[in-house]
Amino acid sequence: MRYAVLWAAAAWADIPKRLITSHKLPLDETPAALKRNIEEWRTLNPEMEFTYFDDAAQAAWMASNCEAKGCIEAYRKLNSGAGRADLFRVAWLIYEGGWWFDSDLKPGPIAKACDLQSASSLDLFAVREPRKGHVRFMVIGGRAHPLLKATLRRQISNIFEAKRLPPKKQPRTLHVTGPFTLGRTICDPFRHAPAAELLGAGHARDGHEGARAVKAFCEGPFFTGMKDGDRDPKADWAGTYAEDTPLAFRFDGCGGHWHRPGARMSYAEVLKEMNVTHHLKITA
């Protein structure tokens, strides 16, 4: 039986119609510009059940639901709110399933922009970065996909490794828990958990076949979806990778909707109003 049938049907049918985001404060206490941005996301995606998590709700959910070894300890070690949100979004996509959007991202209709009816990929749908094609976390849909489980393992390992370093030598959030972790996992999915554990012993061989199929689209350690000289990195393209294997997933430019321009607000001003330091300026 083809894995495209065995593991899932269309992505829109399989990934639950749930939409979430998270930020520091309760929604009613967030700066007006950020609250408007979040509410517009809800308005543009009426077919989805919307939930907002502030830091307290996020922490409570993690404590109750994230069962991966070391998850809660790793989460509590993080200094960065963005880092905690990175870990939370991956865990939530594994254990609950649905769609995540960054709260400061330009609002958009996910189903319309991403043409989900054409995605026969399975339980992971990731949006690409416009210049080099790297995986982004800004809009991502999934449900218990093995690559998400492997990403969570990688993030947890990265956190413990980073925290063993002197504070001044600890890396930034982007490299510890950010979208680079998914891009690296796609290219090296079984580094932190063997295929038999992620997929079941009966599917391990097929998982390794999927990993070999994806390897051609990795530039160094990062997944780009492109072979050398294969496509214009600035073009809006989409594809399903590792088809007919347990690792199959969809990677999409979503019509370039989130490439430019950005949201109609100054996120720097929002963070200033909330007395929050941008994650690029602090260690994880």
Spatial separation of the terminal alpha carbons: 43 Å
Low-pLDDT stretches are: 1-10
Tell me, what is the CATH class?
Answer: Alpha Beta
Helix content: 40-55%
Beta-strand content: 5-15%
Lateral arrangement of strands in the main beta sheet: 2-1-3-5-4-9-8
Provide the CATH topology. Spore Coat Polysaccharide Biosynthesis Protein SpsA, Chain A
Number of domains: 1
SS-based class: alpha/beta
How are the SSEs placed, and which strands pair?
Elements: H1 3-6, H2 11-14, E1 18-22, H3 32-44, E2 49-53, H4 55-65, H5 71-77, H6 81-95, E3 98-101, H7 110-114, E4 124-128, E5 135-142, H8 146-163, H9 173-176, H10 180-187, H11 195-199, H12 204-215, E6 218-219, E7 222-223, E8 238-241, E9 249-252, H13 267-274
Parallel strand pairs: 1-2, 1-3, 4-9
Antiparallel strand pairs: 3-5, 4-5, 6-7, 8-9
Helix pairs in contact: 4-6, 5-8, 6-8, 8-10
In short:
With 284 residues, the chain is an alpha/beta fold. 40% of the residues lie in helices and 14% in strands.
